Structures
1.
Amino acid sequence: MEIKTIREIFHSTYGREASGIVRAPGRVNLIGEHTDYNEGFVLPIAIDRYTYGVYGLRDDSIVTFASAQANGRASIDLTGQIEPGAPPWSNYCRGVVAGLANRGLVTRGADILLTTDIPIGGGLGSSAALEIATAMALLAAANKKNGIEPGELVLLCQKAEHEFAGVPVGIMDQSISLMGQRGRALLLDCRSGEGEQVPFEDPDMAVLVVDTQIKHDLASSEYALRREQCHLAAERLGVPTLRDLDEEAIAKGESDDALDRVQLMRVRHVVGEIARTLEGAQALWAGDYAKFGGLMFESHASLRDDYRVSCEELDAIVDLAGGLDGVYGARLTGGGFGGCAIILAKAKKAKAASRAIRKDFARRFGQECPVFATCAAAGASVVQ
Ligand code: GLA
């Protein structure tokens, strides 16, 4: 997105010049799905698609939000109680304002415009990018860019999503949007919050994102249900989280009848996926994409059969990709129930793979699925 255009949108929205611009990227998770809220490992990259927060200072205590993509505006008085409200998208912003105001990090008003080229609600971390862009804009407007540690800002944004948007997400999306580095994937330990930057840059390798454009209403309720099932399973097995389990403990759970069939499936996914994520990071260090791709297919099968968060369209894309020349691996990325699949392929074969997927998807489902190539981009920053 052009900075000039972004400034123009701010001007036509608020009738004055912007004071500054920040941006926060979306993400794709390479592997490690539904492990973050089990305190496991994830391996996402930030992508070169961003939510921009453009701000203008005000002399009062009012913070306003407008969006270039969604209707409605929000106006929040910093001297009053900050609560959820309309329009629905503003709740991500309201929660962040509340968190920063509680810490005394926003005291002065601002007009904020948000604009994005991340598909909204498409499983590419658009909610987290909105939260991080909001936080960065408010901090920049208050001249307090270093007023909060990155790890704390991640938790503040996660809390905003829990309490103001009602979705009990983990910390993956906010972490990568803030801490992503160009040419690196982030192996994040969701227990300690510590990350290792793993090289992920190679002119011979390509990452394709296939957007099914499908959004299932049950996505957030099913997400909350999965989280609850994991919590209960850990409780029954007498461990704090599923991160604390290994294959042996699962076998014991199976033979003791401690878990019911569904719980066992969920546990099997989480424990297997954490192991695959660690193995995947090793494969990337070794530049072994064939190995990594195999783990991606296994991850997808586990999400489809044990965790049950895939859908027909995602399965069709992954199946087809598996038979294409030059494809290392494919899987759904993000929470599931629609959204996007990712494909890791030889750069030379990426165009042909993309063409084949689009054609097959249109034939089978009678609608388009946009495909775009992406790369590991840098995390959130001040643009101007
Ligand atoms: C969503 C959540 C993340 C994570 C993924 C599944 O993207 O925001 O915290 O749980 O789903 O891996």
2.
Amino acid sequence: MTAPAIKRMDLMFSEREIARRVREIAGEINALYQDKPLVMVCILKGGFMFFSDLVKQVSVQPELDFVRLASYGAATSGAAISFTKDVELSLKGKHVLFVEDVVDSGHTMLFLLQQMRARGAASLRIAALVDKRERREVEVTVDFSGFALPKGFIVGYGLDYAERFRELPAIYELVFE
Ligand code: IMP
Ligand code: MG
């Protein structure tokens, strides 16, 4: 099986647009979690750049942690999902905010939320840079969304295509041959 060849990359969200949305989301987080114990959890790998920019603007002194999930079979088919790295902090009594790159079918986040429900957190919420909500196959709500995207495959700012393009500071839509 060969991956389809890339014909073009079209700019979708510029560095400036992303920075503006990150500032706005940080403002919402600061308002909602004021005086509450917050743990922000980065979902590796895709969430790393959004997480890094976001936490710098959060003023409620969150604890930070990381999870990594692996899905077997087609990337977004909702095939078996498992942890390859779990959170290390106790979540008991704390408010938890997961920071993800894209929520697409919703299977990844549903799995994560189900696993985390037994940990005794005060609340579980999701921040996603891109919400492909029209493509949802299971019910998952993004509480803090950077951009809504009805279709297309995007890369950059943490997001990859076969592990490439994560380093780009802006987001591009891939156009295939
Ligand atoms: P879901 O389980 O279908 O919601 O898939 C979510 C995962 O698919 C995200 O964590 C992304 O890693 C990946 N994904 C979905 N859409 C895109 C995209 O347009 N570009 C890069 N990764 C994507
Ligand atoms: Mg991902």
